[in-house]
Amino acid sequence: MSAYSLARDFSEKKLSELRGALESIVPADEVVVTCGSYARREASDSSDLDFFIITETDQNHLLDDSASSVAWVDDVRKAVSDIVPIEPATGGAFSQFEQRDAMLHNIGGAADSNAKITRRMLLLLEGEWLFNQEKFKAVRRQILERYITDKITDHQLTLFLLNDIIRYYRTIAVDYEFKSFEGEKPWAIRNIKLIFSRKLLYASGLFSVGLTADLRHDLKVKRLEELFDLPALERLGEICGTARMADVKACYNRFLERLADAETRNKLIGLRKEDRNDPVFRDLKNEGHHFTRELMKLFENTFDSTHPIHRAVIF
């Protein structure tokens, strides 16, 4: 069985446990969303689990945009930690509230912080529900309809969405530099994830937008809903076909195998900035360059040179 298949089975089991545990905790009108390795179906017993809450509550009643003031959220955290004991990084975009209406407005505006674009993009590209599936899907559709209005013509790319996907990917690339070199976060494992899982997610967004270029407005939204229901690796397979995906999947499976190995993972976490020539890091980094080339080949083989996606990602 491939590394991805093993990780998928593990992730699905844990997601099922989490959904069962939250049924009696979360108020009926709230939504709990997870992103990251569990949502991508790539988790192992070394993975943490990030979540955030989408609420109808007016933003003025959310103290500091934080879940810390709401009692039932402590119960959610405990239930999550009982099932996934690895603690997520502190100070990030997760374990927080996001007001539903606020997710639909000010996209690209002054208040569109790194945390807000992170939650919005990850909800679309890899988000998975932990509580309230129906409302989760409704919010995701509303966000897509905000990006893809009925003014768009049949042959247009969904440029508003595409530009935000590109903006998000470039944001996390810049954010990596800050967290690794100014924030003193572990740099090596973040670097490897950036060139594998983050790049795969980005590619799955680009390919999805490209696929919908020649659809009616309503069908663009519908097809993107269907694609975003799939984990990123399976999404690319749906778009490109099994045969074309073989080399990309082989590279990605090797990455997942290495990261699931505790010794390799701990080695990467412990590397200092001056350890760039460490053979464990170098081997994964070189495999990452190979993975990038395979994604480029897949892109070129899926969308010929006349397709508007080529121009859109450059100019």
Describe what you observe in this structure.
By secondary structure, this protein is mainly alpha-helical. It is built from 13 helices and 4 strands. It has helices at 3-22, 71-83, 100-103, 114-125, 133-147, 159-182, 187-211, 217-228, 232-240, 242-260, 262-270, 279-302, 308-312; strands spanning 31-35, 50-55, 97-99, 128-131. Helix 4 packs across helix 6 (159-182) and helix 10 packs antiparallel against helix 12. The protein is globular. The protein starts with a helix and ends with a helix.
Search tags:
Beta Polymerase, domain 2, mainly alpha, about 325 residues, four-stranded mixed β-sheet, about 60% helix
Average pLDDT metric: 91
What is the molecular shape? Answer: globular
**Element string (H = helix, E = strand):** HEEHEHHEHHHHHHHHH
**How many strands appear in the DSSP assignment?**
4
Oligomer: single chain
Radius of gyration: 19 Å
Number of helices: 13
SS-based class: mainly alpha
Bin the helical content.
Answer: 55-70%
Amino-to-carboxy terminus distance: 42 Å
Low-confidence runs? none
**How is the largest sheet built, in terms of strand order?**
3-2-1-4
**Whole-number total of structural domains:** 2
Strand content: 5-15%
Described by strand count, sense and barrel closure, the largest sheet is: 4 strands, mixed
